[in-house]
Each structure stands twice: as structure tokens, then as C-alpha cells.
Design goal:
The protein is α+β, with helices and mostly antiparallel strands and 296 residues long. It folds into 3 domains: 4-98 and 190-220, D-Maltodextrin-Binding Protein, domain 2 (3-Layer(aba) Sandwich), CATH 3.40.190.10; 101-187, 3-Layer(aba) Sandwich (D-Maltodextrin-Binding Protein, domain 2); 223-290, Alpha-Beta Plaits (2-Layer Sandwich), CATH 3.30.70. It has helices at residues 15-24, 55-60, 71-84, 129-138, 155-158, 172-176, 201-222, 235-241, 272-280; strands at 4-9, 29-30, 37-40, 45-50, 66-70, 91-95, 101-108, 123-126, 144-147, 163-168, 179-188, 190-194, 224-231, 249-253, 256-266, 284-290. The structure holds phosphoribosyl ATP and zinc ion (ZN). Zinc ion (ZN) binds next to loops.
Length: 296
């Protein structure tokens, strides 16, 4: 069987979390410093470490079969490829809940532009020209789009643009450059993508296995195993407080007829507020444990 290649960002905002997710899914690689190729040691799955911008094209061209990249980059680069090859496709398998950001339209704080419609006939700077042109077209606005690879946020103060479309997470960069957001073009997070078309049976099987493991890692990261003692009479009430718990296990407590032990896997976050509610409902000896692996 051929080996699968997974592309992740070599260094940058998504690099560490992408690698950690794959390692927690049980993949081991022969790390080689500075090289962009890490051989898979325990499964026929190798790693390619590249610039995030290259990942969508590597997938479209089937150089890699799996890749982790921001949805913003995946969509931008796919639109770019589709200009030459309209049939090109990318399939998103799973959103990964990291690398969250928003692509926003921003203007100088003192600008009178307050929506995309105010940009008619004006000039816009961005690193995402395809997404911006699509957004303008969807809103029937004609504006000039200037492509900048970096430092987009300083374009308005240099007088090279009336507005920008750029990624925002905390908003600090916008504020530091006296810009204000007036619209959202898209919200984005890291996602797992696959190449278009079917692989051979062994390849598809391996890909399905990896996907199940990655889903398991994600689910486990959110889940907690909760153990507690509770009055038998308040079982239903207590079960209802446990976030995302389905059919908890109820166990007898030696020498106690009116109290039971409850064990449950909570698939949603367990907050202090939940524990306080449990206590108020008569629970005691409450333990919250991390879940390492899950296989549904
Ligand atoms: O070298 P390579 O090309 O691989 O990396 P890169 O420099 O193109 O990308 P990188 O590592 O900066 O970002 C990779 C991905 O992380 C992006 O494509 C997004 O999907 C995601 N992401 C999440 C972000 C941000 N948050 C983010 N805040 N990417 C960039 N930013 C920038 C933003 O544009 C702003 O200039 O960070 C700056 C700070 O943002 P604030 O709002 O917190 O001030
Ligand atoms: Zn990049």
C-alpha cells in the first residue's frame, strides 16, 4: 500500500497544535530538524512541514492526502486554483477548534465608511484578494482590491487604501493602528482537509482510521469523567445537571440504602458552577477526571 502524506504548517500559529493533535492520535514521526519531511514510524503516514499557503494546492494536486490549515487560507487558495481549474475541489473533514479568527473589513476610526456599501469606487488592501472579490460581488459593490502580503493594517495610514480586510483575533492590532471593524467577511478556524477523489481501499481505510482517532482525541479533550455520591431520591435531578452526560452508571454504596455512587462521562465542559449545583442537590465526594482517549 502507498503511504499517506499529511501536510501541516512548519512554523506559525497552527504548527504546534497541528503536530500535537497528530501525535495524540498515535502517530509517531522520525523528526528531522530543518527538513520538511518527517517519516512516519508506526503507521504508513508521513508528515510534510510547509507554509500554510501551500497546503491547499498540495491537497488539490494529491501530493498530500490530508492537511491541516485555516479555513481562510483553504478557501482563498481554492478560489485561486479554480481560476485555472474550475473543477478543483477540497473536502473539509473536520473543524479542529483552534486557530480561531475572523476576516474583517476595517476602516480608519475617523472614516465615514460604515459598511461594505460605503466602499464603492474606493480602494481596499488585503492578503485575501479572492475572498474579498467574492464578498464584494456578493454585495454588488465595485471597489479596487490591492494585494499586500503583510503589514496590511498600515495601508490606510500610508494612504494606499481606504479600508482593509484582514484577520482579527483579539482586535489589538486594529486598535493599535486606529482602525475599526465595520463588517465580517468570514469566521475561520483550523480544519482537517482531504484531497479530492477516492484513494485505493487501503488508503481510504487508513484515512478513516485516522479521522476516527482525531475525532476521539478532540472529543476526549472536551470530556470529563465525573464520579460522585448522591441521594438515591435525587438521581434524576443530579443526572440532569451533568453536562452532556448520557445514561450515567449508578452503583450501590456498601451499607447505605439511601445514597448511591454515580459515574458519568460528560461530553461538554464541566465548570465550577456545575459542581456547586451538584452539591446543592445533595451530591458529595465529587471527582472530575480527565479523559485521555475515546472510541465511540
Ligand atoms: O509562514 P506561513 O505562511 O506558514 O504562516 P503565516 O504567517 O501566513 O500564518 P500565521 O502563522 O500567522 O497564521 C496561520 C493561520 O492562523 C491563519 O491563516 C489563520 O487561520 C490563523 N489565525 C488565527 C491568525 C490569527 N488568529 C491572527 N490573529 N492569523 C493571523 N493573525 C494576525 C492578524 O492578521 C493580526 O495581524 O495576527 C495579528 C494579531 O491579531 P490581533 O487581532 O490579536 O491583534
Ligand atoms: Zn501563510
Amino acid at each position: 500500500m502507498n503511504r499517506l502524506q499529511i501536510a501541516i504548517q512548519k512554523s506559525g500559529r497552527l504548527a504546534d497544535k497541528s503536530l500535537s493533535l497528530l501525535e495524540r492520535s498515535g502517530l509517531q514521526f522520525a523528526r528531522s530538524k530543518d527538513k520538511l519531511f518527517w517519516f512516519g514510524r508506526n503507521l504508513p503516514v508521513d508528515l510534510l512541514l510547509v507554509r500554510d499557503d501551500d497546503i491547499p494546492r498540495l491537497l488539490v494536486e494529491n501530493v498530500c492526502q490530508l492537511g491541516i490549515v485555516g479555513e481562510n487560507v483553504a478557501e482563498e487558495k481554492l478560489l485561486e486554483v479554480q481560476q485555472q481549474r474550475p473543477e478543483a475541489r477540497l473536502e473539509s473533514l473536520l473543524r479542529l477548534d483552534f486557530g480561531h479568527c475572523r476576516l474583517k473589513l476595517a476602516v480608519p476610526e475617523d472614516s465615514d465608511i460604515d459598511s461594505i456599501h460605503g466602499l464603492a469606487g474606493r480602494r481596499l488592501a488585503t492578503s485575501y484578494p479572492q475572498l474579498v472579490r467574492r464578498y464584494l460581488a456578493e454585495n454588488s459593490v465595485e471597489a479596487e482590491v490591492v494585494m499586500l502580503n503583510g503589514a496590511v493594517e498600515i495601508a490606510p495610514s500610508l494612504g494606499t487604501a481606504d479600508a482593509i480586510v484582514d484577520l482579527v483575533s483579539t482586535g489589538t492590532t486594529l486598535r493599535a493602528n486606529h482602525l475599526k471593524a465595520v463588517a465580517e467577511v468570514m469566521s475561520s478556524q483550523a480544519a482537517l482537509y482531504r484531497c479530492p477523489g477516492r484513494l485505493d481501499d487501503a488508503g481510504e481505510e487508513l484515512m478513516a482510521k485516522l479521522l476516527t482517532r482525531i475525532q476521539g482525541v478532540q472529543q476526549a479533550a472536551e470530556s470529563k469523567y465525573v464520579m460522585l455520591h448522591a441521594p438515591r431520591a435525587r438521581l434524576a435531578e443530579i443526572s440532569a445537571i451533568l453536562p452532556g452526560a448520557e445514561s450515567p452508571t449508578v452503583l450501590a454504596l456498601e451499607g447505605q440504602d439511601d445514597r448511591v455512587a454515580i459515574h458519568a462521562v460528560c461530553t461538554e465542559q464541566v465548570f465550577w458552577e456545575h459542581l456547586e449545583e451538584l452539591k446543592a442537590a445533595g451530591a458529595s465526594a465529587v471527582l472530575v477526571l480527565p479523559v485521555e482517549k475515546m472510541l465511540a
